[in-house]
Design a protein that fits this description.
The complex is a heterodimer of chains A (315) and B (251). Helix content of chain A is 69%, strand content 2%. With 315 residues, chain A is mostly helical. In chain A, helix 6 runs antiparallel to helix 10. The longest helix of chain A is centred in the C-terminal third of the chain and has 34 residues. Chain B has 251 residues and is an all-alpha fold. Chain B starts with a helix and ends in a 6-residue tail after the last helix. Classes of the chains: A mainly alpha (315), B mainly alpha (251).
Chain lengths: 315, 251
């Protein structure tokens, strides 16, 4: 095989991307493309796993058995998403456990929304509706991501996420049609989760330095602000159906743009939470680290047993 | 009540599933391996599903218009009929797997026999539940063997779990005098048969796992009569929280 120079490889790579040909694990890819994907997919995986904690903490307290079963199934789906995503990361040559260690050391991030506490039952419906709803906006676009394994994983994940979003909404419909206490519980959850949900789309476009390259590589298809706007536009009518007030006095339909206008986001809060000062950052990482440390002997036992088995077979 | 004996029997089955399902749900997000987190949640989900069918049927037999939620959430502690084994705290992964294994080894032959029940409803629930229980037993047997015959630490932990939980196993085979009529009419099997099969499964798995049955064979009982350990109250405080704090609401 003739060796190609780097420029030629990069040119061919970009041509494939431009022609919408998926990049597969064994294809040549620029180091930065690989690094960007490892970072993005592993953070996505971590978000799924850390995201199990706020909802998982309501499994034992779900108000009836049907809701308990639905919540168990939902959180289990999230663990499953984590598994596919870690597998996608592995196709890029990264080590699953090493990326998890980066999470525990604080080097790798995860979605900042999971650093907010789930304090009432209404939070569970609200997380399903708003948080999964926001996640879907991002993830539907990722189904067309240029990296094949990630794009394919995302197709399956999106189907489940949209089911979760509808379940969350349905749970809130029940609360909003229930007693005044239940309705107030739903409004309180809305008040606490609305802004963090908008922050899930990340910094605004002029503050998002990696975005342009990711768009060129078709890892990203839409900018953070575009996705955030789509989310607001889709969600406002749903809040109206529920009869919940969105905690933004400046939220109003703009005839000219064909979109809703909304207040500026509190970016100071966003960066505080991203950098470790959210209400639950410490608890989330401690819980995950504890699970890994306390599970160490289980993993060692499984490996020791497998080795013994292998020896017996060859003997 | 038309068939109080059957009501009590079904309640015991339903409460076993409910309480163990509740316990396993506590692991969610904290499992030692992601795959096991999923597996434990899965078993929990199966058990909660079984509890729904069983408690619905119990409510039907009772004839006071109670559904599974009324029975699951609105009884007092001494009205629960689960075996003491199932309300014991999760402890470490070895303890959770051992508790589950000792129970699955009992549930599988029980459901196999209930499949032939002259009561159609019980037979139908048993058919659906047996499929799930077979997987659970396979899963937990494999883990007991893996832990028992894994590392020194895992062996020690599995043995400690067995030593701790063994004293709650005999209660699984609890039988009342009113059960005799159910056995005679072919609605439920005799526990003698179930115990024989349980012993066979347990002995063979423990042997492969290099674990030994503790020499102290003292056995506790009480759960089947509503006399529980201190642990149940805390479990119910979580389970019943919403229904007690916000009574008479639909969720």
């Amino acid at each position: 095989m003739k060796t190609m120079d780097l420029q030629e490889l990069e040119k061919r790579f970009q041509e494939k991307i431009d022609k919408e040909i998926k990049i597969e694990p064994n294809d040549w890819m620029p180091d930065e493309y690989r690094k960007t994907l490892i970072r993005q997919i592993s953070q996505h995986a971590h978000s799924e796993i850390v995201g199990m904690l706020p909802e998982g903490n309501w499994i034992t307290r779900a108000p009836n058995l049907r809701r308990k079963a639905v919540l168990l199934a939902k959180v289990q789906d999230e663990a499953g998403h984590g598994l596919y995503l870690y597998s996608s990361v592995e196709t890029l040559g990264a080590d699953r456990e090493a990326t998890i260690d980066d999470l525990h050391s604080g080097k790798a991030k995860y979605s900042s929304i999971f650093n907010y506490p789930a304090v009432t039952w209404a939070d569970i419906g609200t997380i399903g509706w708003l948080v999964d709803g926001a996640a879907i906006m991002n993830q539907v676009a990722l189904c067309r991501c240029s990296y094949g394994p990630y794009a394919r994983g995302m197709v399956k994940i999106c189907k489940e996420e949209s089911f979760h979003q509808r379940q969350g909404f349905e749970s809130l419909v029940t609360l909003c049609n229930g007693t005044p206490t239940q309705k107030a519980m739903a409004q309180d959850a809305m008040n606490r989760f609305w802004w963090p949900a908008l922050m899930m789309f990340g910094p605004s476009d002029d503050e998002s330095p990696n975005s342009a390259q990711s768009m060129k590589w078709k890892i990203k298809r839409f900018s953070n602000d575009e996705l955030r706007q789509s989310f607001v536009d889709a969600t406002v009518p749903q809040a109206e159906i529920l009869g919940l007030t969105i905690p933004d006095p400046n939220l109003k339909w703009n005839e000219e743009t064909g979109h809703y206008d909304f207040s500026p986001i509190n970016w100071d809060e966003f960066w505080q939470v991203v950098n470790g000062n959210g209400p639950c950052n410490k608890e989330r990482i401690e819980a995950r680290t504890k699970a890994k440390e306390e599970g160490m002997w289980v993993r060692e036992a499984a490996m020791a047993y497998a080795e013994k088995r292998a020896l017996k077979k060859t003997a | 009540m038309k068939n109080e004996a059957l009501y009590n029997y079904v309640l015991r089955l339903g409460d076993d599933s409910l309480i163990l399902g509740q316990r396993l749900g506590e692991w969610c997000g904290h499992g030692p391996i992601l795959e096991e987190d999923i597996a434990m949640t899965n078993i929990s989900l199966d058990l909660i599903g079984q509890a729904m069918s069983l408690l619905d049927y119990a409510g039907e037999l009772e004839g006071q218009g109670k559904d599974h939620d009324a029975l699951a959430f609105l009884r007092f502690e001494n009205e629960y009929r689960n075996a003491l084994l199932l309300e014991q705290p999760n402890g470490d992964f070895a303890n959770t797997m051992m508790r589950q294994f000792l129970f699955d080894a009992f549930r599988k032959p029980l459901y196999e026999k209930l499949l032939e029940s002259t009561d159609k409803q019980i037979a139908a629930i048993a058919e659906k539940s047996l499929k799930e229980t077979k997987y659970h037993l396979k899963h937990t047997s494999e883990w007991i063997i893996r832990l028992g015959d894994g590392t020194e630490e895992s062996h020690q932990r599995a043995q400690t779990a067995l030593d701790h939980l063994w004293r709650y196993t005999n209660e699984l085979f609890f039988e009342t005098t009113e059960d005799v009529s159910l056995i005679a009419s072919g609605v439920v099997p005799s526990m003698n048969d179930i115990k024989a099969q349980w012993s066979k499964t347990v002995l063979s798995v423990l042997e492969e796992a290099t674990l030994v049955i503790p020499s102290n064979n003292w056995q506790f009982e009480g759960g089947r009569r509503g006399v529980h350990s201190e642990h149940l109250g805390f479990l119910l405080a979580d389970l019943q929280y919403m229904q007690r704090a916000y009574p008479n609401m639909k969720w």
